[in-house]
Amino acid sequence: MTDDITTGLACNELVEIITDYLEGTLPEHDRARFDEHLLTCPGCREYVDEMRTTLRLSGRLAVESISPGARDELLRAFRRMKASSTGL
Amino acid sequence: MEGRTLVRDTDTELVERLRHGDEATFVGLIDTYSAPLLRLAVTFVQSPAVAEEVVQETWMAVVTGIGRFEGRSSVKTWLFKILTNKAKTRALRERRTISFSEFDPGNGDEPAVDHDRFLPADHPQWPGHWSNAPQPWSMGPEGTALDRETLAVLRRALEDLPRAQRVVVALRDVHGWPAADVCAALELTEANQRVLLHRGRSRLRGVLERYFSDAPTLPSPASGGGKLNDLPSPASGGGKGMCNAQSISDTKQEDQ
User: Fold this and answer.
1) What pLDDT score does B106 carry?
2) Which of A52, B59, B188, B250 would you call most buried, defined as having the most Cβ atoms within 10 angstroms of its Cβ?
3) Is B73 left (phi over 0), alpha (psi -120 to 50) or beta?
4) pLDDT under 70: residue ranges of chain B
């Protein structure tokens, strides 16, 4: 029983390959070891959950962009450019 | 998401429309890319105002230089390259020397989780297993004060990340860009992109973990200082320098 874990993935290894796991870039064999480890390890299941939560929360952070004034100015510049290249 | 369809539209067509003065195309571009460009710009220059100017200059260069776009890279990469050059020039003028090789994640070994959270390698039964396993987080439902506070903590943690990690995590997880786009825009290899993403995400998780484990279930502010002021800064390197208490303190706990 315990052999599965001691010969398989250790928790401190799992936390280092979790990004490859989530990115889908982990080789098949390692992916299987990862999944197998999760079956027997509540701590790592929690860890993976927390990582997913972190990503989800990051996706909710507000995105800052340029000010409306700056945007308008760009549009005006674009129109001027258009006028000068096609107008003459 | 819009960005992707915009680009998938083939860059040649897009550039062609820009050259013909198609305003909708230009608006689409600035609305899609200004935020990510700004995100990169702030890693080079001191103030948000200057960062916005750099983005502005970048767009002006697009307006005046669209005829020079050769189509050898994607429009996205082209934009980021223009921005990088302008931002570097500006940074030099500000006497801020930033080496772009900071995007190389190479140096040092930064564990995702402190070594002391695990049993030692010579442990007879559970080497490398958790000695202090992660505990479930008690999050507030979306829209509550607690939820807003959590987002504020995460935002601050993101801003405190080392610059390369910050840009990569922001583009991937905040802006939702696919890995390939981030690699192209920042001229990173896939492997480096992944290392930066991994370190950044791991740090953010760590900050949230500390935040949730410090959070009292029942708010009982015995003394003046709320828990937010005691937030530990991210494991290594992230000194108090960059972060300020203000951004956090305006999301006050409503319970009092």
Assistant:
1) 59
2) B59
3) beta
4) 1-9, 95-108, 215-256
* pLDDT digits (tens), chain A, 88 positions: 444 444 589 999 999 999 999 999 999 999 999 999 999 999 999 999 999 999 999 999 988 899 999 999 999 999 998 888 754 4
CA distance A47 to chain B (A): 6
Report the alpha-carbon distance of residue B24 to residue B146 in Å, rounded: 40
| Contact check, Cβ <8 Å, A2/B202 | no
- As beta bridge partners, residue B118 has B130
Distances (CA, A) of B72 to B50, B68, B75, B101: 29, 11, 9, 23
How far is Cα B155 from Cα B247, in angstroms, rounded to an integer?
9
CB contact under 8 A, A74 and B63: yes
Contacts of A66 (CB under 8 A, 6+ apart): B30, B34, B35, B38, B52, B55, B56
Residue of A nearest to B208 (CA): A54
The reply to whether residue A78 touches residue B198, judged by beta carbons under 8 angstroms, is no
Q: Which of B135, B183, B68, B70 is nearest to A42 (CA)?
A: B135
Q: Do A55 and B59 touch (CB under 8 A)?
A: no
pLDDT of amino acid A3: 43
What is the predicted pLDDT for the residue at B108?
Answer: 60
Nearest chain B residue to A72 by CA distance is B27
ipTM score here?
Answer: 0.85
Claim: this prediction has a pTM higher than 0.80: no
Q: What does the pLDDT look like over B22-75, one tens digit per residue?
A: 999 999 999 999 999 998 888 888 788 999 999 999 999 998 888 777 777 788
Nearest CB to B173; choose among A15, A59, A62: A59
- CB atoms B175 and A77 under 8 Å: no
Mutate to test the interface with A, among B27, B34, B116, B165 (most CBs of A within 10 A): B34
CA A41, distance to chain mean position in Å, is 23
